[in-house]
Predict the structure.
Amino acid sequence: MRVRRVVADNPSPYTGPGTNTWIVEGDPVAVVIDPGPDDDRHLAAIEERLAGAAVGAILVTHSHPDHLPLAARLGDRHHANVLRYPELGEGDLVQLGKVRLRALHTPGHASDHLCFLQEEDRAVFTGDLVLGKGSTMITYPDGDMAAYLHSLDRLLEVRPSILFPGHWDPVEDPLPKLEEYKRHRLDREEQVLRALAEGPSDSAELTRRVYASEISGEQLLRAAEMTLQAHLRKLVEEGRVRSEGSLYSLP
């Protein structure tokens, strides 16, 4: 399997150096994964990297605005179907020429999140489930922390050989990375419980308690609060945290 990458020119605190568009080369057609933001320059860069190759399908890992919007324009140009959840679901196979990709429903970062597994090489296109650097946001209320941890376990079952993420570089040692991601989330959960042991709090104040040494700036704190709220929902559903109005406390 030959894979090429085109990085969208949309760097930010949330996208790292930009969003990765992956081109899986096949015979006689290619498959494009995550066409990215609706940007003329990015479209031109994808076309340049395709070098005249036909596109058989466009796959989208999830509907966030840095992954999906260019799909319709690119699909129209190549008369190619755009496939994403729920048209694709767990176990569905996309086969075009020599390209065979199995859809894995991996909610957590987003409820409609898919990964795509190339079974022969055990290569996985992970979208934002796993990044090449740092950790991913769990964007509450659509994001779900319990589902996210289950999705990490789903990838561990696959025992992938390489991960092609939505941001940053490929992960060539995926099993330790997946275990690191699980450990990070469970460690964060323990931080939340320790912070609540100091007394009841709303999510904004709790975010400042938990992330005080890691994050500065209101924009990043608001993003951290969404992920922290996803942790809180999981803990409330498990009966480990109590919610009364906007306040959270230990039972």
